Amino acid sequence: MAAKLKSTDIVIVGLGWTGGILAKELAETGLSIVVLERGGPRDTNPDFMYPTVHDELRYAQRHELMQNVSRETLTFRNNASETALPMRQLGSFLPGEGVGGAGVHWNGVPWRWLPWDHEPLTQTLARYGPGVIPPDMQMLDWGVSYDELEPYYDKFEYLCGVSGKAGNLRGQKIDGGNVFEGPRQRDYPNPPMLQTHAGALFEKAAKSLGYHPFPGPSANTSQPYVNPDGVAFGACHYCGYCERFGCEVNAKASAHFTVIPLAARKSNVEMRTNARVMKVNLDAAKTRAESVTYIDAAGREFEQPAGLVVLCAYALGNVHLMLLSGIGKPYDPTTGAGVVGRNYAYQIGSGAIVFFDEKTWINSFMGAGALAVNIDDFNTGSFDHVKEGFIGGGGISTSSSGGRPIGFRPVPPGTPAWGTEWKRAVVRHYNHTLAIGNQGSVMAYRQNYLDLDPTYRDRYGRSLLRMTFDFHANEQKQANFLADICVRIGQAMGAERVVRSGPPQHYSIVPYQSTHNTGGAAMGTDPRTSALNRYCQTWDVSNVFVTGACAFPQNAGKAPTGPVGALAYWTADAIKRYLNNPGSLVPT
Amino acid sequence: MADDEGMRRRDVLKGLGVTGAVAGIVATTVPPEVQEAEAQAAAPHAHAVSRDGQSADGFRFFTPQEAAIVVALVDTLIPKDDVGPGGVEVGVPIFIDRELAGAYGRGARMYLDGPFGQGTPQQGYQLPLPPADLYRIGIADLNAWCVETRGGKTFDELSPADRTTALKAIEAGQAEFAQVPARNFFSVLLQNTMEGYFADPMYGGNRNSAVWKMIGFPGAIGMYREVIEKYRNKRYDVEPKSIQDLS
Q1: Coiled-coil regions in this chain (chain A) (predicted)?
Q2: Same domain, yes or no, for B199 and B77?
């Protein structure tokens, strides 16, 4: 039986970006806070030191910093007619485990999503009317607009020391920045990063086609930086070991050296690592959370009573805990009723591989996770996508995130996968090739959802989360349209050969695509279609708040960490109001 | 019969206590440079067994017979040629052996609970086997398949040209293994071979960073702030450094 612990005012489940931000912000209330992290403690020194952290096999291939699926995984199928089977090893996405969460091993790409992304339904209806939305598409507004979130985006950018160039300062468009972004109150805290040859080629080619290239926002700091909390960042070395690695110089923003130690310093905050939360315990009426149950490193079970529970356990972990705990009604795709697990989405990729002659040196090993040149000319809301036959869009970029050779050794199609001919092609193309990628939006559909698997269990005896997901025709059209743009840019670079990569026919759990899982506990304005209200408070259990990308009702053509950070700050403010006057912040 | 000849020869060699890899030397179908490579990989094993059993290069997971097969597989996938080093000479078989002897081989980060179903390609790997077991069974399957379809010879007994033909058939899905799906075995083998070839030398492959030198990858250095703009569209020609070099 679980040992019952002394009650705390607030319990936070998960210690990545969202848990760290919530812990630091809520610590200011003086209330007692317990934070439970399923993984172990980690810090830059000694865990991410040079040169040992520059180890592609250990971190990029063997996933040292990520979720260990031998303990907890999920099952997957493309559609409800199939039997879901376990994801037996990591592949498509790489959730984190341990202090700092996936924010330790991210690339450091802190986008603001476009205004359209926060209210796609309103904007689509206003521009095109209801007829253009496919019948199965479950498009939802967030219930909070870009303008409302803007101060919170700003706060996250200054926390992270983002390097970049504004393209829209209080409505004034600025050449060289992203002219498609929403208005921002001030510029980024740091200037853009240095440019690579790949970036220069992309910029020139995109301009020649009339597009609007700009340096991508980067949470790899372009210069030494001290954030408003007084946390010092080093300047990025452009080492090319960002994604899947920790950063040895604290140039890549991460909660583990910013918000988390600041919160941990407070006497009213206690952080427990190797504390894996099994479920949230509700009262008999299922309207109030009373405690959480967790297991420690030795397998002992504890019950931690709390007045307020905040779930910060990654998009998939949050939905899993809600389903296991009975928070909100599970979604049923046959009737369309229920909300938990609804609106799960991902992203769709396409692009072009650009092969140059041997006089063109790309040196892709010099780079940084977020070092990229982008265009948003074909992103959500930037152009007449409906005229092209779909809803959505994508960000196009060439990214110089590091040419580590186990993972990056492009060869032209038709090259054998081994043997002398293969080796010759690797040597010929390794330093003379770049990729242009489309990160395509994915809308939510009736058929794509998360629920509990009826068969498979984790090490702790709990039902695994089951993911039912596939790409739809709308997204295929979008990704094909954007792949053509990528090819056009590649051709304008003066390449020897440009190879188009179209979108996959079906979503596969196998190859890495992105750790950009969204939805499953959507926020919104209607309790019949969203699991959370606009403050990320669960509709049914008012003392449970849920933060993270699970709240996004559909996915965008941009990485989700920016809005995840902004929404964490937004939620922290909402919780502070809740604490003064407990109850639902949006009466139903 | 060819089958019997193959079996006899292996039995004789086993009886003599000769490792499988050394057996390659007596196979007249294998050219001298491959014999050399195989002997090179096999020698440390013999050394390890005869001396202290702890030599850094001894095979820990593979039996001598399995090691001979893996050496022949790696030599076929990444041969020594005019382009650059072969997989065997830079230690890829040792790399694979080390991986299989450790946490990776045990599937320490894999979910291996049942029930087991075949699934779709989109659902990924569904065998109940961690990599070490997949290799052990896969190598036995490969040999049985070779003996049956290649004139009674095990894989290491084939000529280089026949090894290539055999692996192409497996890669193309034309081989039926008795126990594990041939393509599962092949794809994991190819993945691990590439990992060993391109990984930091401390894992046993990519000896002396020879593979990094070949492609122009500086390795673990990662200090490019001062050079990233200067070397735009220019060759950055430096001696690669491994983690040990920098430690």
Answers
A1: none
A2: yes
Are residue A130 and residue A238 in the same domain, yes or no?
no
**What is the CA angle A86-A97-A190, rounded to 5?**
125
Closest approach of chain A CAs to the CA of B65, in angstroms? 23
Average pLDDT for A527-556: 98
- State the nearest Cα–Cα gap between B152 and chain A, in angstroms: 25
Query: How many independent structural domains does chain A possess?
Result: 2
Cis before residue A134, ω within 30 degrees of 0?
A: no
Taking CB atoms and an 8 Å limit, are A508 and B124 in contact across chains?
Answer: yes
Q: Which among A85, A367, A457 has CB closest to B119?
A: A85
Could you tell me if A291 lies within 8 Å of chain B, comparing CB atoms? no
The domain spanning residue A400 has which CATH number?
3.30.410
> How many domains does chain B contain in total?
2
Residues A149, A265 within the same domain: yes
Strands A463-468 and A372-375: unpaired
Q: Cβ contact (<8 Å) for A366 and B214?
A: no
d(CA B71, nearest CA chain A) in Å: 14
A512 assigned to some structural domain: no
B174 plus B245 within the same structural domain? no
Q: What is the DSSP letter of A336?
A: -
Q: What pLDDT digit, counting tens, does each position of A186-237 carry?
A: 999 999 999 999 999 999 999 999 999 999 999 999 999 999 999 999 999 9
Count of A-B CB contacts under 8 Å: 185
Tokens (6 digits) for B230: 């200067």
Which of B217, B234, B242 is the mutation pick for testing A, counting most A CBs within 10 A?
Answer: B217
Are A362 and A197 in contact by the 8 Å Cβ rule? The answer is: yes
Q: Are residues B240 and B175 in the same domain?
A: no
**Which structural domain range is residue A354 located in?**
172-244+348-440+472-506
The residue of chain A nearest to residue B125, with distances taken between CA atoms, is A88
Cβ-in-10-Å burial (0-12, 13-18, 19+) of A131 comes to: exposed
Pair (B54, B141) in one structural domain: yes
Q: Which residues 367-406 of A have a C-beta within 8 angstroms of B?
A: 367, 403-406
Do B186 and B164 lie in one domain? The reply is yes
pTM summary value: 0.93
CA distance B30 to chain A (A): 17
What is the extent of the structural domain holding B224? 217-247
Which residues of A are marked as active site? 516
Predicted confidence at residue B56, as pLDDT, reads 53
The predicted pLDDT at position A1 comes to 77
Asked if residues A150 and A184 have their Cβ atoms less than 8 Å apart, the reply is yes
For β-strands A348-355 and A433-440, DSSP reports them as antiparallel
Please provide the average confidence, as pLDDT, over all residues in chain A: 98
Based on the domain organization, do B147 and B223 belong to the same domain? no
Check A51 against B198: CB less than 8 A apart. Answer: no
A510–chain B Cβ distance below 8 A for any pair: yes
Q: Which residue of B lies nearest to A423 if distances are taken between CA atoms? A: B83
Same domain, B69 and B57: yes
A145 and A63 share one domain: yes
The model's confidence at residue B26, banded by pLDDT at 50, 70 and 90, is: very low
Together in a domain, B206 and B227: no
* Residue in B108, B195, B236 nearest the CB of A406: B195
Choose the closest CB to A417 out of B122, B190, B235: B190
